[in-house]
Each structure stands twice: as structure tokens, then as C-alpha cells.
Automatic annotation (TrEMBL):
InterPro entries membership: Acyl_CoA_acyltransferase, HAT1_C, Hat1_N, Hat1_N_sf, Hist_AcTrfase_B-typ_cat-su, Hist_AcTrfase_HAT1_C
Gene Ontology MF: a single term: histone acetyltransferase activity
Histone acetyl transferase HAT1 N-terminal domain boundaries: 14-175
Lineage, opening ranks: Eukaryota, Metazoa, Chordata, Craniata, Vertebrata
Protein name: Histone acetyltransferase type B catalytic subunit
Native organism: Champsocephalus esox
Length: 408
């Protein structure tokens, strides 16, 4: 038994956290390759290396996935200090390289010198598609930086191969990501690029992107649905997500055939970002003025948001709640109570549905069967959960209001 435990301990030394082992870079200059400050790591690796996010068989494992900043030409190298099969007979390491090769497209290099030589071609890289929007962001280190948002379709020359490289980032930064069929012409792509200077030339770096699928709505409309959205880690926290979402929203608002704009299984962070952007867009609409907000969510609000900004009723209701909170003196007990009841009225919807289901159960279930469901429908529990939900929602709303005030 002691020998087995000793063996297990020795083998455990050959386990590596794949989130730490994978080293990624967006390379602009040759010196970036050796500069640890330009390295970032995945948030997730379970889709490639399993739920444990562990690779077995190596010590000092480093998986390099370096990309040129614009065209995303790729360097893929695996480095380690020792391999388990060098010490232990009949013990095989995991196929680290094979798993990566399954998701990165052909055309990558495994040679650092070859990769550095590819940087010379970055001057030839130009953003794909049609320019939609240009904006600037102030950087303490670099001053005013300029960014562009482009709209691209699948037929754009060279984009298909570029997109194959770009979408590999999804596996590392979106928890349940999957690759899309980019050959379907109902996909729209929106990309963000940074303009930067290198040796007197203007170059472009990839910042992030969004994919949108255009669904048919009877009889003659479309419903664009956001499928994927990612701002690459070196650019996160700089406001690019909001710029991208607002530009995309304004683009679809300009199309008469668009019914409304939705999102596929949106994450919590996406919902907060959408709330922020939609509040910015709606706050100037006549039906959302401060004097009308205390009167409640109206049909005029829903209609104006739909007609002018392609915002559906559900999203418009959230916008109304945020703007009403901003306009409400919450230190006034009566006004605060009115606001609280207004929000809870919406939040109570799922609980009201449970009550209707309970009424149906009473008619068709035996007493012993009904008893098993009663605990789930306990009124006191419902009120407690409702209050918790309200507090979470209001805290999220306050953060959005603060952000809008900061960027006013």
C-alpha cells in the first residue's frame, strides 16, 4: 500500500492546470513574444481538456498559442521540462497537441522564427467589410486610441479563413461555446479593430467580434439574434463591448424589415451590458421622460421602443424600471414603496404562474401527491425570494445608472 501511495504522489507531479499551462498572446512587435506582460490565459479549458481542466503526463507544461495582432496568424508550440513516459514505463501522457489541433485551423506554424517573420505581413492586413462606426478611447500610456467597427458578410474575400482562426478564442473564454456554420448567408459578423502605428505605418489589431443570425418572422420581417460576442482579454474593461453592441443595434434599427433584436441564451454579463446600451438609447425618447415614468410602464413606451429602436416589450420594461429608479427619490418612503411594488409586480410573474399550477394540482392530484408540492409553493418563501430578487435587480440597476452618469 505504501508503495502505491508513493507512486500516486510521484505521478501527481505530472498533472498540470490547463488554464495556467495555456499561454496566449496577441503579438504586434517581435519583442512581445518573450515579454510575459503580453501573456494572458484562458478562463475555461474544459471544452478541450475535460471538466477537471487538467493535463496529465508533463512537468513544466506550457502550451503556446500566439497570434499576430491583426490577421491572427498562429504559432502553436508545446514545451515541458519532462514527460512521464521518460521516467515510468507503460504510463502514457495525455495527447495535448492532438486536442489543440482539433480546434485550430490548418496553416499555423510551430516555429517561433517563422512566426516572427509573419509579423512583417501584418502591414498588408486590412479590416474586413464595411465601416459602421469609429470611436476613441483615452489611454494613459498611449493617449487617444482609435477603434473601428466593421460589418462583414460571409462572402467577403479572405474572411472565411480569418474567422476560423478568430472563433478558436471562443473555446477559452465562453463557457458553452460552439463553432458556427459560417457558410450560412443569414449570419452577420461585426468586428472591432484598433488602429495603431508601427514604424510610421498604420496597422490594425483585432479587438473582438459579434455574430448575429437573422431569423425569419412572418410575414415579411427578420429578427436578428445575437449568438456570440467576445472582446479579447487585452481589451476588456475599456468599453468596447458597449460600443460594439450599440453600433450593432443602431445598424439593425436602420433596416425597415427588422422586427426586433434579441440574444440567444444571454449570459448575466451580456444582459447587464444590454441594459446599459438600451437605457442610453431610450433615455431621450419622448415616452420615457422623467414626468411620465412615475405613471408606470405604458403602451406608448413599448410602442416607441419597438418602432424607433427595435426593442421588444420585455427589454423596454427593464429600461423603464432603470430610468424610473434614476428619477425616483428613494429617500421618500412613499415614492420608494411605489417603485418597489412596481418592480416586484413584474418579478412576481413566475410565482403567480406557480399559484395557477397549484390550483390545477388541487383539482387533479390525490392529497398525498399534493403534499409533496406544497413546500415548493410556500407563500412565505415566495415573499423572501421575491425580496432577494428585488434587491439584486435594484443593485444592478444602480450600477447601470452610475455608469451612464460617469460617461455622460
Amino acid at each position: 500500500m505504501a508503495a502505491i501511495n508513493t507512486m500516486e504522489k510521484k505521478l501527481a507531479e505530472y498533472k498540470c492546470d490547463t488554464n495556467e499551462a495555456i499561454c496566449m498572446k496577441l503579438v504586434r512587435f517581435p519583442e512581445d513574444v518573450e515579454d510575459d506582460r503580453t501573456t494572458f490565459h484562458p478562463e475555461f479549458s474544459h471544452q478541450v481538456y475535460g471538466d477537471d481542466e487538467v493535463a496529465f503526463g508533463y512537468k513544466g507544461l506550457q502550451i503556446q498559442l500566439f497570434y499576430t495582432a491583426g490577421n491572427l496568424s498562429t504559432l502553436f508550440k508545446v514545451k515541458y521540462s519532462s514527460k512521464v513516459s521518460e521516467t515510468f514505463d507503460c504510463v502514457e501522457p495525455d495527447d495535448i497537441e492532438g486536442k489543440i489541433r482539433e480546434i485550430i485551423p490548418a496553416g499555423f506554424t510551430c516555429n517561433s522564427d517563422d512566426f516572427i517573420s509573419l509579423l512583417e505581413k501584418e502591414a498588408n492586413f486590412q479590416p474586413f467589410g464595411t465601416l459602421l462606426h469609429t470611436y476613441t478611447v483615452h489611454s494613459e500610456d498611449a493617449g487617444e486610441l482609435t477603434y473601428q467597427i466593421h460589418k462583414v458578410d460571409v462572402n467577403c474575400a479572405g474572411f472565411h479563413d480569418y474567422h476560423k482562426r478568430l472563433q478558436t478564442f471562443l473555446m477559452w473564454f465562453i463557457e458553452t461555446a460552439s463553432f458556427i456554420d459560417a457558410d450560412d448567408d443569414r449570419w452577420d459578423f461585426f468586428l472591432v479593430f484598433e488602429k495603431y502605428n508601427k514604424d510610421g505605418e498604420t496597422l490594425y489589431a483585432t479587438v473582438g467580434y459579434m455574430t448575429v443570425y437573422n431569423y425569419y418572422v412572418y410575414p415579411d420581417k427578420t429578427r436578428p439574434r445575437v449568438s456570440q460576442m467576445l472582446i479579447l482579454p487585452p481589451f476588456q474593461g475599456e468599453g468596447h463591448g458597449a460600443q460594439l453592441l450599440e453600433a450593432v443595434h443602431r445598424f439593425y434599427c436602420s433596416l425597415p424589415k427588422v422586427q426586433d433584436i434579441t440574444a440567444e441564451d444571454p449570459s448575466e454579463s451580456y444582459v447587464k451590458l444590454r441594459d446599459y446600451v438600451l437605457v442610453k438609447l431610450c433615455q431621450g425618447l419622448p415616452s420615457f421622460t422623467a414626468d411620465k415614468l412615475p405613471l408606470g410602464f405604458s403602451a406608448d413606451m413599448a410602442k416607441e421602443a419597438q418602432d424607433k429602436l427595435k426593442i421588444n416589450k420585455k427589454h423596454a420594461r427593464r429600461v423603464y424600471e432603470i430610468l424610473r429608479l434614476r428619477a425616483t427619490d428613494m429617500s421618500d418612503e412613499d415614492k420608494a414603496r411605489e417603485y418597489r411594488l412596481e418592480v416586484k409586480k413584474r418579478l412576481f410573474g413566475p410565482y403567480r404562474k406557480n399559484q395557477r399550477e397549484m390550483a390545477k394540482m388541487k383539482k387533479c392530484l390525490r392529497p398525498e401527491e399534493l403534499l409533496s408540492h406544497v413546500d415548493q409553493m410556500d407563500t412565505q418563501t415566495q415573499h423572501e425570494e421575491l425580496e432577494k430578487s428585488y434587491q439584486v435587480v435594484v443593485e444592478d440597476y444602480r450600477r447601470i445608472i452610475e455608469r451612464i452618469a460617469t460617461h455622460a
